[in-house]
Write a structure and sequence with these properties.
By secondary structure, the chain is mainly α. Helix content is about 55%, strand content about 5%. Strands 1-2-3 form a three-stranded parallel beta sheet. A two-stranded parallel ribbon has the order 4-5. Bound molecules: tryptophan.
Length: about 325
């Protein structure tokens, strides 16, 4: 039996290079050796956007386009939509009783998001509890592994705690998952300030046009003390070199550029030009495939309906075991 992988994203817009290097690349690589489910977490997206339910659909379409254009293959990976899988909501109800409020309040990712989102004391219950619903996602599929960015670590820890408590109360039913972090679990933004994220406006999207990519690369933050070409420069904490490490297929070239930059004599423009070339080469085939796929949106949704139907069966079977273990099988 193949081991099971579950990954997922909230549909909140297009995916960017941070998503690509943090988990999408792993998904494409791992789909050959594992049974993979990719969950479009539209219910999780609602936890801090309840008033914008109507906007979620277009983001779902963007996500499907991103997935298929980077090479997620529907013959190997099932893409499914959270709100169309009822067992996830039922499991969430059972798991809520296995988690304390204080534990949710201490979740570092949730804490961070609360700060960013300015809830001003009015935190939706569904938002605070979304790690519980994510535990339902992960366990419903019986996932052994979750390839994800570093910010998802607390969710996996929370899931493992729920699994242990459930199995301890009711018998060995649920599987404890492990996170699989990429080599670059968190990509700095083009402004060098924080991680790449839509809300900070420091992203390069997988679907950006060539001129946008070039403009963004040429505007990237580098070493602020590297003023003259002849000055020795710093390559650490320098987003341009961090991106080259993450995306260039030619490691030797990157190493020699780093050495040159550190010695002095290599200008930012030359490095950025090379980075632009690397990113154009990476993103061009993705963008072209995306445009092709966008011509037939119905066909995309057919793929997702099939994936969701399979997901409904798998998760219903977990729910059945859960209810039996809890003696709720009337
Ligand atoms: N929390 C993830 C995000 O912020 C989305 C998600 C929901 C997820 N359920 C999941 C990720 C299950 C991995 C596994 O995008």
């Amino acid at each position: 039996m193949k081991k099971i992988i579950l990954t997922g994203d909230r549909p909140t817009g297009k995916l960017h290079l941070g998503h690509y290097i943090g988990s999408l690349k792993n998904r494409v690589k791992m789909q050959d050796d594992y049974k993979q489910y990719v969950l479009i977490a539209d219910m999780q997206a609602l936890t801090d956007n309840a008033d914008k339910a109507r906007d979620i659909k277009s983001s779902v379409t963007e996500l499907i386009l991103d997935y298929l254009s980077i090479g997620i293959d529907p013959n190997k990976t099932s893409i499914c939509i959270q709100s169309q899988i009822p067992a996830l909501a039922e499991l969430t109800m059972f798991y809520m009783n296995l988690v304390c409020l204080g534990r949710l309040e201490r979740n570092p990712t949730v804490k961070n998001e609360i700060k960013q989102k300015n809830f001003a004391g009015d935190i939706p219950v569904g938002f605070l509890a979304y790690p519980v619903s994510q535990a339902a996602d992960i366990t419903a599929f019986g996932a052994n592994y979750v390839p994800a960015g570093e910010d998802q670590k607390p969710m996996i820890e929370q899931t493992c705690e729920i699994v242990r408590r459930f199995n301890n109360y009711y018998g060995d039913v649920l599987v404890e998952p492990e996170i699989i972090l990429s080599k670059t679990p968190r990509l700095i933004g083009i402004d060098g300030k924080a991680k790449m994220s839509k809300s900070l406006g420091n992203t390069i999207y997988l679907s950006d046009e060539p001129d946008e990519i070039e403009k963004k690369v040429m505007s990237m933050y580098t070493d602020p003390n590297h003023l003259k070409v002849s000055d020795p420069g710093n390559t650490e904490n320098n987003p341009v070199f961090i991106y080259l490490d993450a995306f260039s297929p030619d490691k030797e070239k990157v190493d020699s550029m780093k050495a040159h930059y550190e010695r002095g004599g290599l200008g930012d423009i030359a490095v950025k030009k090379y980075l632009n070339e690397v990113l154009q080469n990476l993103l061009e085939p993705i963008r072209l495939r995306r445009k092709e796929l966008a011509k037939d949106i119905d066909a995309l949704y057919e793929i997702v309906r099939e994936g969701t139907s399979e997901a409904r069966d798998v998760t219903a079977s977990t729910l059945k075991k859960v209810k039996e273990a809890m003696n709720l099988d009337f």
